[in-house]
Amino acid sequence: MTQLFDVAAIGNAIVDVISPAAEAFLAGEGLAKGSMALIDEDRGNQLYARMGAGVETSGGSAGNTIAGIASLGGRAAYLGKVASDQLGEVFIHDMRAIGATFDTPALTGGPATARCLINVTPDGERTMCTYLGASTRFGPDDVDAAVVENAAILYLEGYLFDPEEARRAFAKAAGLARGAGRRIAITLSDAFVVERHREALLGFIKGQVDIVFANEVEVTALFQTDDFDAAVASLAAITDIAAVTRGAQGSVVASGASTHAVPAEPVEKVVDTTGAGDQYAAGFLFGLSQGRALPDCARLGAMAAAEVISHYGPRPQVSLRDLAASKGL
Questions:
Q1: Among 211, 154, 160, which Cα is nearest to 189's?
Q2: Residue 189: which of 223, 222, 218 has the closest Cα?
Q3: The domain 5-13+60-102+138-326 is classified under which CATH number: 1.10.530.10, 3.40.1190.20, 3.90.1150.10, 3.30.479.30?
Q4: Residue 228 CA to chain centroid, in angstroms?
Q5: What digits encode the pLDDT tens for the residues 185-204?
Q6: Which of 5, 72, 83, 273 could tie 113 with a disulfide, CB 3.0–4.6 Å?
């Protein structure tokens, strides 16, 4: 079957609202610094009204990754659910404007398009409150077989593992990808996803997944251990490639008996860590789709992550393809 896309991703279609915030603001709103909490529409409206002036941009973890892949020059497709409303139109426009294919029908007569309210403290740490809205209505009928079967890699966002309908969509997409001889990747997304669905995630990874992205907290939570090296080894034992990020310490990539530690790309100042993991996955997946060696994939991921944490917003503000060329990557 002819390959049309390097990567096709399924995820929560979310518009991000990103604002600088003082530590006192977080305390006053009862927000745990560095956390991601799910909220309802009323709480979202209240918090939005109290946040400082900021940036509104299409986001969502897998959507951000697709934006990074497109910036690297990759052929990308996205599947996710927005509502037929103003924010939904913004999201659709933004995805298509970066060159990604996005044709999932918008939801009518249901909840509004999802949004994530992100408060960034002076140290660059982000605290997120997310109203999932229409994004949770993504289901098996929204899986476009032609897109999935014609992508070298299918990338699944762990956040979407929570709703039952979306999990069925994952199973359908994975079956299509496997039947077409494609590779399947998943990001664990957040420790709360792991803690809520540990056994189901482990079963899905063992049975369907070739590539797993995680950070240090997520991988240790998955295997209920404080031993990072043991957790990485356990993950590598049940999937072909384990790519685990460690913030300023870089990343570790394990595949079979091989383990590669790749340093983080230095940045002058960390402004906003929103999207760092998403862009790491973008660089890594793009490299993998081009047949690059695993350490080179991790270096591309580190480069993309460094670019995004140097400014507000979860998507690249420069051409990652040009940036990679300038660094000999």
A1: 160
A2: 218
A3: 3.40.1190.20
A4: 22
A5: 999 998 989 999 999 999 99
A6: 83
